[in-house]
Design a protein that fits this description.
alpha/beta, about 325 residues, Rossmann fold, seven-stranded parallel sheet, globular
Length: about 325
């Protein structure tokens, strides 16, 4: 049966689409191709998918899933069952500048997809949440059982709201749902608004790297192939409607998981690896902590390991050089 993937031109969405197509699935991908970052990168991801796979198994539609009418028209003409909802307005910092974009995409859009899943009686609805929901949590590593009631950004608040909306639909309509809290994803075809890309670009252009909180930050950097393996494993194992407590505490068919590398790396270690991979010496531009940001992230992945056999295999020592090689190739450096 065909899988609907939202955000199919995005970083994780395109990588997930590739993995599904590679194992023989048929995919309908949707994306509004907005200009939050350069749309040419999104078109390049789509073109790479079209070159690699038979067009009969991959269909792309430019569509804003916050537009209920457009989504309904697609549904009326397309047969699909499972939904992998990876599209969203991303970025903590941009949510301070344009909150309405997050309300439309992450709240209205998410609810539209839930309604679509309800109408279709989808056998599984997998959606992207974020490690940002943990806010200023001081308990390390972040556990799926931790309270997440104090988001530090509107972006984080919308992702927490998505989890709550999904819980209500799973409870009311017994729809199998899985929410995935991603931790700092990086790798080939990554996003230009994230540190890995920003730092690499600055190194090649001999410009200072903006280092927040004086570099005193740690992140659970997760390679995109590991993220995708977790997404696909979860898609294949929908939570049962058996009344038992699921990861995250729901007794409805709704599970929540962290997907991370389960290693918290110092930001300065990342910069060292980028220096080695680019052959450039970094000039640092220390800056204060940004509003809405957090100092540390670290994923406890025991729940997804237990339920889906998820094991990340890519360290930053391996992943960072791979990203830099791709960046060189993509930009012809």
């Amino acid at each position: 049966m065909t899988v609907l993937v939202t955000g199919a031109a995005g970083f994780i969405g395109a990588a997930t689409t590739r993995a599904l197509l590679a194992r023989g699935e048929t995919v309908v991908g949707i994306d509004n191709l907005n200009d939050y970052y350069d749309p040419s990168l999104k078109h390049a991801r789509l073109n790479a998918l079209r070159r690699e796979f038979d067009g009969n198994r991959f269909r792309f539609e430019q569509l804003d899933f916050a537009d209920a009418r457009a989504l309904g028209e697609l549904a009326a003409s397309t047969d699909f069952d499972r939904i992998v909802h990876l599209g969203a307005q991303a970025g903590v910092r941009y949510s301070l500048q344009n909150p309405s974009a997050y309300v439309q995409s992450n709240l209205v859009g998410h609810c539209n997809l839930l309604e679509l899943a309800r109408a279709r009686r989808s056998s599984h609805f997998v959606y992207a949440s974020s490690s940002s929901v943990y806010g200023g949590n001081k308990s390390i590593p972040f556990r799926i059982e931790d309270r997440v009631d104090h988001p530090l950004s509107l972006y984080a608040a919308t992702k927490k709201a998505d989890e709550l909306l999904s819980e209500s639909y799973a409870s009311l309509y017994r729809l199998p749902m899985t929410g995935l809290r991603f931790f700092t994803v990086y790798g080939p075809w990554g996003r230009p608004d994230m540190a890995m890309w920003i730092f690499t670009k600055a190194l090649f252009e001999d410009r200072p790297l903006p280092v927040f909180n004086g570099g005193e930050m740690r992140r659970d950097f997760t390679y995109v192939d590991d993220i995708v393996s977790g997404v696909v494993a979860c898609l294949d194992g929908p939570p049962l409607d058996d009344g038992a407590s699921k990861a995250g505490g729901s007794t409805a068919p709704h599970a929540l998981y962290n997907i991370g590398n389960s290693r918290s790396e110092n930001l300065m270690r990342l910069i060292e690896l980028l220096e080695q991979a680019t052959g450039r010496k970094a000039l640092l531009d220390p800056q204060p902590m940004q509003a809405g940001d957090v100092k540390d992230t670290f994923a406890d992945i025991s729940a997804i390991e237990r339920d889906h056999g998820f094991t990340p295999i890519t360290t930053i020592d391996e992943g960072v050089p791979r990203f830099v090689r791709w960046y060189r190739d993509y930009h012809g450096l």
